[in-house]
């Protein structure tokens, strides 16, 4: 179970996390370029699979919402942090009728086939039960996109920094992602490397 501090960590730092997407040039100078690579990757997958309705899990301040809506794709963003939801709703106001944002956690995903695609960027990093999250996403949509941080020094430093605040950070290699997908009745369509930052996984339901 997350600590009490985990429950407020992202809410209290919403503005800081949102600022990561303020300038791609600055982000790349700071070594955060993969944030934009995974964002574009998710958009490309949504377009290529013809998604009309997307669930954005842990939508944060909403960096994925506008780009998808600009392509005519309806998105429901969910996030448990009130400050994140507030920022995402301001983004949603730019595309009335296409975007909506709800304050709820991934544990509350209970829809069945309500979406064409479910996306979670920067979420599996902090989830202690990744298999359960994959199962819920795979129930809500036949296709799933998720980003997964790779093991290494970069991740170990994050584990120390976040761990001091009661936040767990998890590592995934290609074998673990494939194994989790299989256990969630999903198959790996593509596993795109994001440099030292990890992988962007495109998963689809396995044939029954």
Description:
With 208 residues, this protein is of the alpha/beta class. The protein has one domain: Vaccinia Virus protein VP39 (Rossmann fold), CATH 3.40.50.150. It has a seven-stranded mixed β-sheet with strand order 3-2-1-4-5-7-6, with helices on both faces. Helix 5 links the parallel strand 1 and strand 2. The model has no long low-confidence stretch (mean pLDDT 91).
Topology summary:
Layout: H1 4-12, H2 14-19, H3 24-29, H4 34-48, E1 53-57, H5 65-69, E2 74-79, H6 82-92, E3 99-103, E4 117-120, H7 130-140, E5 143-148, H8 153-163, H9 174-183, E6 186-193, E7 199-205
Parallel strand pairs: 1-2, 1-4, 2-3, 4-5
Antiparallel strand pairs: 5-7, 6-7
Give a brief rundown of this model:
With 208 residues, the chain is an alpha/beta fold. The protein has helices spanning 4-12, 14-19, 24-29, 34-48, 65-69, 82-92, 130-140, 153-163, 174-183, and strands at residues 53-57, 74-79, 99-103, 117-120, 143-148, 186-193, 199-205.
């Amino acid at each position: 179970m997350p600590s009490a501090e985990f429950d407020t960590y992202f809410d209290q730092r919403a503005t800081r996390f949102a600022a990561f997407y303020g300038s791609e040039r600055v982000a790349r100078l700071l070594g955060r370029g993969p944030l934009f690579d995974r964002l574009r990757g998710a958009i490309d997958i949504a377009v290529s699979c013809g998604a009309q309705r997307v669930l954005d899990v842990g939508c944060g301040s909403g960096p994925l919402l506008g780009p998808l809506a600009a392509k005519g794709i309806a998105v429901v963003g969910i996030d448990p942090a009130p400050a994140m939801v507030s920022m995402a709703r301001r983004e949603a106001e730019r595309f009335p009728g296409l975007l909506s944002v709800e304050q709820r956690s991934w544990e509350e995903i209970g829809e069945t086939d309500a979406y064409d695609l479910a996306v979670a960027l920067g979420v599996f990093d902090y989830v202690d039960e990744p298999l359960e999250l994959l199962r819920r996403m795979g129930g809500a949509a036949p296709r799933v996109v998720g980003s997964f941080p790779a093991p290494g020094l970069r991740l170990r430093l994050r584990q120390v920094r976040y761990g001091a605040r009661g936040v767990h950070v998890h590592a995934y290699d290609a074998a673990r992602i494939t194994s989790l997908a299989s256990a969630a009745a999903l198959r790996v369509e593509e596993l795109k490397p994001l440099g030292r930052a990890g992988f962007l996984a495109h998963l689809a339901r396995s044939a029954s």
